[in-house]
């Protein structure tokens, strides 16, 4: 039976998650050459090729895909054993944008707690701009937000696509301003919707402004107004109505993660959370 080296398995899992030797090396605080050596050591130990690497892509081999689940369990067991020897609990503060957080978030946080019982995560939810400002002030250790400007740093977790959603019974009379429900003026999705309508010269009026996201969803579900939503977070029972009412397409954006975490265990926990976010966000 092959004896596994923790650092080699960690290198493999990180390469698999980030699909890049360069980014994996950066995440683990080492060099690309060292990552490659650790992966080769693991592959030689197992007698299997785990990663298929070409000039344009890095992907799991069939054996690598089969080994990945067990590799994660191996690392989790190792981390739990080490955490059991440490005094006190580690903690970090995480901001998740309200328009990013979907119904899968509680499940992901529960998975993260099982992965690393020695870690306490303090979660703050707000709009993306508020969270990014808090991160820049050092009030958050990490933030997962929707990209709202030209800032290019941060790790991309996936694309976010938007549409116009309304209840099936929503009625928009020709010639009348479009009835729009939105969050507070600082909300980025509201800004995206307003710019699209103004550019298309479509008159609109806000009939429900400043409530919580659940209140906006309730207003749209009740047929009182229309609103722009992420296509994966539209209220149940609503439908996409762009073609029905001749509304302009809404630009896609990206979900990005920012982090200043330095200790290896916290970075690994955050990578596990990021992987979970990617799993729930199809590329198209």
From TrEMBL:
The keyword Transcription applies. It comes from Roseococcus pinisoli. PROSITE patterns: HTH_LYSR. The lineage of its organism: Bacteria, Pseudomonadati, Pseudomonadota, Alphaproteobacteria, Acetobacterales. The keyword Transcription applies. Keywords: DNA-binding, Transcription, Transcription regulation. This is LysR family transcriptional regulator. It comes from the Bacteria. Transmembrane segments: none annotated. Belongs to the LysR transcriptional regulatory family. InterPro entries: LTTR (IPR050176), LysR_HTH_N (IPR000847), LysR_subst-bd (IPR005119), WH-like_DNA-bd_sf (IPR036388), WH_DNA-bd_sf (IPR036390). PANTHER family: HTH-TYPE TRANSCRIPTIONAL REGULATOR LRHA-RELATED, TRANSCRIPTIONAL REGULATOR. Residues 4-61 form the HTH lysR-type domain. Pfam families: HTH_1, LysR_substrate.
